[in-house]
C-alpha cells in the first residue's frame, strides 16, 4: 500500500489551490478545494500508472481491451484513496488543514458515463482487472451528458440533462497527440488494383476526430493502475471558412455541430431515422477509435499482424460494439493490406462477445439504408462476411432451407433489409458468453440455437460479479470493519474467505454487532429519504428495497400489487402486520417508455394515499427515492433488510444488484431467474425467499392466459386489480392507471403478474414472520454475506482471463 508524506501532500494541495486556481485557501470555492485534493491524490496515481505501463511493455504482455457504451464508475476520490491505501491518512491531513473531508467526498458528482447494470458491471470488471494486476483496459465515449437526471413532480418522472463537468473533471487526463481519425459518410467507388483484383475505394468521406481522455483505474493495493480511455468527438476542421466568408454562418458550422453531437449524450433516441443515424454513428465512432488505439499500441512493438491475436484480446460488451468485427476487418484489409482469409482469422481469434439480454427487441438491428449512408465500406464488408457465411451454412445444412434465413446477418423484413448486430458479433467472435448459468443455457437453447448447433465450442457462461472494494469496503465501511476484525483483510482480494464468518453464526455478540451495523445503515438511509422525499420512515421497520431500472419485466408493478394487498388487509380486514414495513423504490424509466413511467406514477399514487392513512401508516410506508445512481446505491444497499429481485423468470440475464444486496446482508425475495438461481444455490434456499413460476412454465402460462380464472380463484387478487382499475390511488386524475389494469387483465399479462401474485404474497408473509425472530434473521443475513464469495467480479475476471482472453497477472 502507498503512504503519504503529510508535509508534501499539504504543500502540494495548497500549491494547487494557489497556482492552479489562483486563490488563497480563504478565497477557494468548494469546487477549487475538491479539485485540488483530487489533483494532489492524482500525483500518486500517475506514478503508478507509468510504472504499470512500463511493466506491460517490457514484458510484451497480451492485453485485453473491453469495449462498452457504458462505464458507471461512480465517484472516484474515495474509491481511489481506498485502493491506494491512503484513505485514513488523507482524511487526517485534509481535516487538519481545516477542511471537511467527508463533505468533500459527498460533493463529488457521479460521472455521467452510463445508465444501469451494463455500465456498473463494466466498472466492476475494470476494478478487478487492476486489482488482480491484469493488463485490461476499457474503451468508451466521453459523454458530456449521461442518460438524464430524474426528478419527480406530481408523481411523474421528469428528465433533465445530466451534465457532469467532464471538461474540468480532475480524473480525466487529456491524452494529446493520440487522436483517432474516423472516416464517415461518403460513397464507394468500384475500381481494380494493378493485377485486376476488385479494389473498392471509399471516397468523399468526412472525418471525425476522436480525442482520447484517460481515467486511471487504480487496483487495490496500488500496484497496478490501468486506464479507461474515453473519446470525445470533434469535427476535423473548425468550420468551412469559405462558406463562412460567403455569409452562410450556420451552414459553415453544420458539420462541426453535427459531429460533436456524437459524444454529447448517451443513447440518443432512435425513434426516427435521424436518431438512428446519430446512434449508429456513435457506436461506429466508439469502435473506430478503440480499434485505432488498439492497433497502434500493438504496432508499437510488432512489425506484422502475425501475433495480433496472441497479444490482443477484445471483448464486446453487448451488441453496441459489434461493429468492431467490420472495423477490424477494414483496418486490416484496407489500411494494412492483409488478405481477407488472414484478416478473418485474426479478427475471429481476437474478439469475444458477451450477450446481456434474451429480449429480441434489445438485440440491435439497423436498416441497411442507414448503414449505406453512414459507413458504406463497412456495409460492403458485412455483406461479404454474410455471403461467405451463408455459403457455408447452405453447404452444411442442405436439407434445412429456413436455416440460412434464421442465421443470416443481413435479413430481409418485408422488403427492407436490416443488419442483425448480434449475429455479426457471434459470427465474428471465437467466444460467446452469457452472464448467468440459466441465461447462458437460454442463449443456446432459445435465443440462437442454430448458432449453438453450428459452434457449440464457442458458447460458455461467465456469471457476473461485483467488486467488493466498492460494494462492501467503500459502501459499507462498518460491515467491512467487522469482517476485518473477525477474519482479517484477506477477503478484500479473495471474497471466498468470507466463508470463515460462518464459524461465528452462533455467537450472540457477533450477531448483535451485525444487527447494530444494519440499523446504523438504516438510520443513515432514513435520513436521506427524509431529505429527498420529505417522508419520515421508521428504521425499526423492514426496509424492503426494489432498486433497478423501471421495466415491465422487472415487475415493480407486482411489488406495488402486494403493497395494495397489505394495505387492504390493514384498512379493510383489520389484520395488523407482524412487523412494520417500509417499501423503498429507486430507478429510472426510459423517457419514451410509457408503461414504465406510469408505474412510477402508480407507486407515487400509493405513497400519497397510504402514507397519509392514519390507520395504516404506522405499519406501512411507501417511498420512491429519485435519481437512482451509483452514489445513491452505495447508501441504499447497505440499509436494505430485503432485496426485491422479482423479474419474470427467463427475462433477467443475470442481475448484479442482487449480488450487492446479498453481500451486504439483505435477504433476497426473488424468482428463479438470472443469478438468483446461483445465489440460492450458494446461500441456501432456507436463507432466501423464492417464489413464482419457473422458466419452463412461463410460456404455457402465456399461451393459456385466462384472467378470469385467476381473478375468480383469488378474492385478494381481484380486490387488488379492482383497485388498480379504480381511482383510489389517483383521485385527482381519474382513469390514469387503467392502462396498467388493461395490460394485465385484457392484454395477456405477458409478464405474469397475476400468475405469480399468490406465491409472491405468501413469500412476503413468511418473510415478515421470520423477521420477528431477530436472532435467526441475523443468522440468515450473516450466511448471505458469508456465502457470496462466488459473486466477486474477481472470480468472473479470472474465468474470462483463463478461458477466453488468455491474459495473466503481472504482479
Automatic annotation (TrEMBL):
Entry-linked Pfam families: Phosphorylase (PF00343)
Enzyme Commission numbers on file: 2.4.1.1
GO molecular function (one): pyridoxal phosphate binding
Protein family membership: Belongs to the glycogen phosphorylase family.
Protein's UniProt name: Alpha-1,4 glucan phosphorylase
GO biological process, alphabetically ordered: glycogen catabolic process
Subcellular location per the Swiss-Prot or TrEMBL entry: Cytoplasm
Keywords for this protein: Allosteric enzyme, Carbohydrate metabolism, Cytoplasm, Glycosyltransferase, Pyridoxal phosphate, Transferase
Main enzyme class: transferase
Cited InterPro entries: Glycg_phsphrylas (IPR011833), Glyco_trans_35 (IPR000811), Pyridoxal_P_attach_site (IPR035090)
GO cellular component: cytoplasm
Cofactor: pyridoxal 5'-phosphate
Known function: Allosteric enzyme that catalyzes the rate-limiting step in glycogen catabolism, the phosphorolytic cleavage of glycogen to produce glucose-1-phosphate, and plays a central role in maintaining cellular and organismal glucose homeostasis. Phosphorylase is an important allosteric enzyme in carbohydrate metabolism. Enzymes from different sources differ in their regulatory mechanisms and in their natural substrates. However, all known phosphorylases share catalytic and structural properties.
Positions carrying N6-(pyridoxal phosphate)lysine: 660
Reaction(s) catalysed by this chain's protein: [(1->4)-alpha-D-glucosyl](n) + phosphate = [(1->4)-alpha-D-glucosyl](n-1) + alpha-D-glucose 1-phosphate
